[in-house]
Amino acid sequence: MDIVVFESLYGNTAAVAAAIADGLGEGARALTTSEATPELVAQARIVVAGAPVHAMSLPTDVSRESARAKPQGADHMPADLGHTSMRAWLTALPRGPRLGAAFDTRVRGPLGHGASKAIAHTLEADGFTLLDGPQGFTVHMHTSASEPAALLARGQLDLAREWGRHLRERAASLV
Question: Taking the CB of residue 95, how many other CB atoms lie within 10 A of it?
């Protein structure tokens, strides 16, 4: 079983995770950090983990609460804080020899690769063999007459699907 674990506040990271799972192939599942229990992770062959970039790193409790105050999108959706943060999920990650990869969703510009690099570092420290370097998927800030909204840049889901296929092929070459 292959899993893609994500923290997503407005749905962008969830959409990327689903596309990566699609690229990984049949049976791969995209799961929130709350759904990806230590028992499921321990059974997984490949674990891909991702989160949005906040202040050049993984979201913190403070940045998650700040996001709650910033509804986005046409429906002014509040941030989804109903699942465990990636930071907390990583602290409970079962050690063991598994394959892994890390990604983040980020606004283009100097806001960095901090989330995917932090995830990759933790995966490696916990005994995972990384299938590829940290990957980022771009979110653009759009300002409407009423509210700014973060939306995935064009083509990012196709890139995520392709990256999932690449990870599957890398995993096959290691067997």
Answer: 10
pLDDT tens digits, 51-105: 887 555 666 565 555 555 555 544 445 556 677 788 888 889 988 889 999 999 8
Q: What contacts 36, CB < 8 A, 6 or more positions away?
A: 3, 5, 89
Angle (CA) 87-49-169 rounded to 5° is 160
Measure the CA–CA gap between 163 and 80, rounded to whole angstroms: 26
pTM: 0.84
| Residues ≥6 apart with Cβ < 8 Å to 24 | 2, 4, 46, 48, 164, 165, 167, 168
Express each pLDDT in 18-54 by its tens digit: 999 999 999 999 999 999 999 999 999 999 999 887 5
Query: How many beta carbons lie within 10 A of that of residue 44, not counting itself?
Result: 22
- Helices (DSSP H) in 25-73: which residue ranges? 38-43, 61-68
> Is-contact 29 55, C-beta < 8 A?
no
Q: CA Rg, the chain, in Å?
A: 15
Strands 29-32 and 2-6: parallel
Q: If you ran DSSP here, which 8-state letter would residue 95 be given?
A: P
139 and 150 Cβ atoms separated by less than 8 Å: yes
Residue 12 in contact with residue 152, Cβ under 8 Å? Answer: yes
